[in-house]
Amino acid sequence: MAASTLLNIMIRAAQKAGRALTRDFGEVENLQVSRKGPADFVSNADLNAEEIIRDELLKARPTYSFLLEEGGEIKGEDGQHRWIVDPLDGTTNFLHGIPLFASCIALERNGDIIASVIYNPIMEETFTAERGGGAWLDGRKRLRVAARRRISDCLAVTGINSKSATANAREIRQLAHITPSVAGIRRSGSACLDLAWLAAGRYDIYWEANLSPWDIAPGLLMVREAGGFVTDFSGADKSIQTGEVAAGNEPMHAALLKSLKTIG
Known about the structure:
Elements: H1 5-25, E1 33-37, E2 40-43, H2 44-60, E3 65-68, E4 72-74, E5 81-89, H3 91-95, E6 102-109, E7 112-120, E8 125-130, E9 134-137, E10 141-142, E11 155-158, H4 165-178, E12 184-186, H5 191-199, E13 205-208, H6 213-225, E14 229-231, H7 239-242, E15 245-248, H8 250-263
Parallel strand pairs: 3-5, 11-12, 11-13
Antiparallel strand pairs: 1-2, 3-4, 5-6, 6-7, 7-8, 8-9, 9-10, 13-15, 14-15
């Protein structure tokens, strides 16, 4: 795959941040950690990775806007383009020494995601996508969603919200309804990697709610460019706005939506 100039900029930024995270991961017990809220942590490593990505992107495109997980919204002179950045998706995994996390960047143009990168530094896997250019692993392997057509054969992945009793109750109802129908359920702790792995055919269906834009944007384009379908729970193309994601190939996405609507 011949990546565009913009995508190469994004790859370099994500990989540079990921290398810094890998160094910090080796000393995770010594990190200075502050608490932002229930089950929501931020570390020096997280902030440092975000600064690396922001600086790299600013050098290349100084007029673009930003939406950063830690730094919030930063308006640029360019009214069309915005970087959406999650420097460390899977922070809780990272802080507990679990080697499953990623540095993630999406580029939005006039409200549409046109390019994305999800870099898993421990496994040294770089997932990329450009609108109309497909989704790729390490620039060499074209990604395609799995072709399974029976829900009973599917490996599903989801997230469990530990901040809201109401959300948690709904998720338990969803799990109780969907678990008997599928081959297995996983909960990884990294929404971006869940979407990247679905694009790669490792998972078959994914659903989760109460997500932030930076959790969704990088993987949204990746799944679609891999031939998959991604919507919110109502079936609308509003995942970034609603914080809901339901994803899979065409028949499995339809089956998942039917289940979610039945549960309510």
